[in-house]
Amino acid sequence: MAKQKAKPVILITNDDGITAPGIRNLVEAVKDLGKVVVVAPDKPQSGMGHAITIGQPLRMHKVELFGETEAWQTTGTPVDCVKLAVDKVLHRKPDLCLSGINHGANHSINVIYSGTMSAAMEASIESIPSIGFSLLDYSVEADFTASRFYIKKIVSAILNKKLDKHLLLNVNIPAVSQDLIKGIKICKQAYAKYKEEFDERNDPHGKKYYWLTGEFINFDKAKDTDVWALKNNYISVVPVQFDLTNYTLKKVLEKKNLFK
Amino acid sequence: MAKQKAKPVILITNDDGITAPGIRNLVEAVKDLGKVVVVAPDKPQSGMGHAITIGQPLRMHKVELFGETEAWQTTGTPVDCVKLAVDKVLHRKPDLCLSGINHGANHSINVIYSGTMSAAMEASIESIPSIGFSLLDYSVEADFTASRFYIKKIVSAILNKKLDKHLLLNVNIPAVSQDLIKGIKICKQAYAKYKEEFDERNDPHGKKYYWLTGEFINFDKAKDTDVWALKNNYISVVPVQFDLTNYTLKKVLEKKNLFK
């Protein structure tokens, strides 16, 4: 008797919160590719980085927001959502974890600040292949048509291959219509960053407060970076790792024997 | 006329908050090595990862907590503190940024969750050489004697060399008395992680809530890891990078041409 292949279980989370259009579009894009389960924050968590909730307990409630797709909202961060999903919702590791679609870019150095990518990284650490998706459009009325098309393509390709149990991809999608997108490029993370400035103001009581603002600057002139690809209307795919060891500097330090 | 060499400016921050014994001990350890300025969170920020504050403004106040050493407390995260320090306190980049001494380990995968290391990483991105320090003792009454001795040694060695403008070190110190410490080892980040479990409870109204708990498991049998070094009473020094590109996987994906 031929054993029927079980549908892959796909966990979906995000950092803009469970009601954001981005996560609804991600569910739409991949719901035919497996059994989709959503576990996502009940409120926006942008800029939370790899935050986890230690000092207070978490709540989790089932919600009906995605038709027949099972969905839970939690009071936790994106990383908390992945942990809760594995331990309390799925009671197993999903075959794939998807995070997004983020409203706004997560290319270059943003991978470090991004709640979207942190959720995906958490899954990768847990040996769950994982992909974070971001569209370069902050608007809640962003057009996700091209995103849905390319996400389905990328997820199908990844589901059909056993590449790496720690597979982790950072996918960014330019904010242009589908006919203008030139294709998908495998890239490295650009060395680009924000030149921060704080907007200093006085409150009605005469006391100072500061708003973080900043200008984005790309220092990286290479043509295989995510910033280059996006500027040229390609979808950028950066393979990401969680071993942060700087092996080059490790060799230098060992050779110099500084701390003897 | 011989120009006198200016004292190096050393920025100090942490994630346990400005009143934690760890940061006081860090200031004590290095105050003779340069002009020290403290800019740190006004409350504990552990587990905040690389969080930044976008949705609300920040406050910052001068405090007298470290004798003659200039100090400011902010309502922000450790990363916010570094940004505020450069833009609004120092009005320049410091020569070195130190973060800690964290009360508790930041070895292996903890580098990703750690507010201590995120502050240091933020500085490194800004081309400020930076070191995060952690003592493997969560207690507020932890003994920092050995930490102070070795931190002074490490910071002196780094200040005297121009190694790399993005230099970033993750230093962990075993919780043993100074005579038992065998020395300083340059290490790689161990592949170790938490096996999470949530403690499920019912509130007085019969509703469920969850506490994050977890058991630490080291999967890495190598002898050049931080976990190995600490277990064998060495201080571990892991050079860290913020380019998260997985170049090995990049080559694989390029070769397979998956997304065509």
Largest interface, counted with CB-CB under 8 A?
A-B, 78 and 77 residues
Number of alpha- plus pi-helical segments of chain A? 7
Number of domains of chain A: 1
CATH class of chain A: Alpha Beta
The percentage of residues in β strands of chain A lies in: 25-35%
Give the overall form of chain A.
globular
Q: Give the low-confidence spans of chain A.
A: none
> Which oligomerization state do the chains in this entry correspond to?
homodimer
CATH topology of chain A: Stationary-phase Survival Protein Sure Homolog, Chain: A
What is the distance, rounded to the nearest whole angstrom, between the alpha carbons of the first and last residues of chain A? 67 Å
Q: Helix amount of chain A, in percent?
A: 25-40%
Order of helices and strands of chain A: EHEEEHEHHEHEEEEHEH
Radius of gyration of chain A: 20 Å
Quick one: how many beta strands of chain A?
11
- Class of secondary structure makeup of chain A: alpha/beta
CATH superfamily of chain A: Survival protein SurE-like phosphatase/nucleotidase
| Strand order, largest beta sheet of chain A | 3-4-2-1-5-6-7-11-8
